[in-house]
Amino acid sequence: LLLMSNKIVGTLQSYSFSNLISLVSFDLKFNSIKALQSKAFHKCPTLTMLDLSDQAIREIGEYAFSDMSNLKSIHLNCNFLKRLNKFALANLPSLQFANFSTNKLEIIDEMAFHDGLDCLYQIDLSNNELTELKGQAFARLKNLTILNLKGNRLRSIDWQQRHNFLKRLILENNRLEFVKSNFFRGLSKLE
What we know:
The protein is built from no helices and 15 strands. It is mainly beta. Strands 1-2-4-6-8-10-12-14 form an 8-stranded parallel β-sheet, with no helix packed on it. The chain has a 3-stranded parallel β-sheet with strand order 11-13-15, with no helix packed on it.
């Protein structure tokens, strides 16, 4: 366990925490980190939990979390992210939970949740500024069962892919004006 919370860290450059080969849990909340450069957590193979909540993070570089094969949960809530870039979460084969709530997210790149996220079953995107979800943003997530989109500004949902795996889709407190006519046909497992 490594605790570095409460205004100790301001910048995370590439390879900042390389080769912490026995670290399991890393708590960095309540710092002033503004950006995560590519490979900031490169080669932390035993890390299972990473908490980067309550920062000032505005950007996550491609492959910022590469080579974290055992990471199960990542907390990036309460930051200033406006966009979830492609490959930001690439190659995290054990990731089960991702929390991006209470940011300023307006855009989720269709490649943000790309291949290598086979275990991801819960994503929290609540209380952001998303206005629409298009294309195949979540199409590759075959085990996604809980998707929280509460408290956004969603006006339309036009997914091109069926999401038969979802058991819980939370859409309350949005501004939905358009939902594709056959949208709910692809959500046969909702509870």
